[in-house]
Amino acid sequence: MKEDVDVEALHSFYRGISELIGVEGMLKVFEQYRGMQITIPIHLYDRNLAARHVLEQYNGKNSYELANKYGYSQRWVVKVLKTQQQDR
């Protein structure tokens, strides 16, 4: 079916997707999600799971690195750490 796709005639959304991940990937997205309203989260990582990983990986000095790694602010990382300390 990939060969049958006229990329120039695609809806702009699907054309953009095909440019990002290729026609085959775009067709998978189309088949899976067509007709649905999709909201894409702003963060790649789940807030609760990222917080757990921050607590596991924090070494006393790496809040900035953890913030960058998980896509949250350094302020958020510090808040996670403070909340953990208060819960003890």
UniProtKB/TrEMBL annotation:
Residues 17-87 form the Mor transcription activator domain. It holds the Pfam family Mor. This is Mor transcription activator domain-containing protein. The lineage of its organism: Bacteria, Bacillati, Bacillota, Bacilli, Lactobacillales.
